[in-house]
Design a protein that fits this description.
By secondary structure, the chain is mostly helical. It has helices at residues 3-23, 33-45, 49-60, 79-95, 100-109, 113-124.
């Protein structure tokens, strides 16, 4: 398998994994936090329309992730907020002007002060 094909396969798997997570397609406890972070890292590594759409969906996500808490989760803020902050920061870096409306919405309705701070900082760039 060529390197480009392997990267595409890994990319598709990460996108699919995150889409299933956001869709609630599995029972609570099915997903491990470190796997979710690995998938987000793959998605944020390459700018594409598909990745931007997924990050926008993450930024708008208004639910609870079905994570297995026995394998560790974020401690500074809820996992949903961590993913939202990563999505906003990435979208702003890719094209802050294009995503400014979404970033403002997240800033104005953030459930966590750190997410609002990330969004405010993203709008300054």
């Amino acid at each position: 398998m060529t390197q480009a094909r392997k990267a595409t396969s890994t990319d598709s798997a990460a996108v699919h994994h995150l889409e299933r997570l956001l869709g609630g397609d599995h029972p609570t406890g099915h997903y491990h936090w470190h796997h979710v972070l690995a998938a987000v890292e793959i998605v944020t590594a390459t700018k594409s329309a598909r990745h931007a759409a997924l990050l926008r969906r993450i930024a708008r996500f208004d639910g609870r992730l079905a994570l297995d808490h026995r394998h560790g989760i974020s401690h500074a803020m809820p996992p949903e907020e961590v993913l939202r902050a990563i999505a906003i920061r990435t979208l702003a870096a890719w094209d802050g002007t294009k995503h400014a409306t979404l970033i403002r919405q997240v800033r104005d309705h953030a459930d966590h002060d750190l997410v609002a701070l990330v969004a405010r900082d993203a709008l300054r760039k």
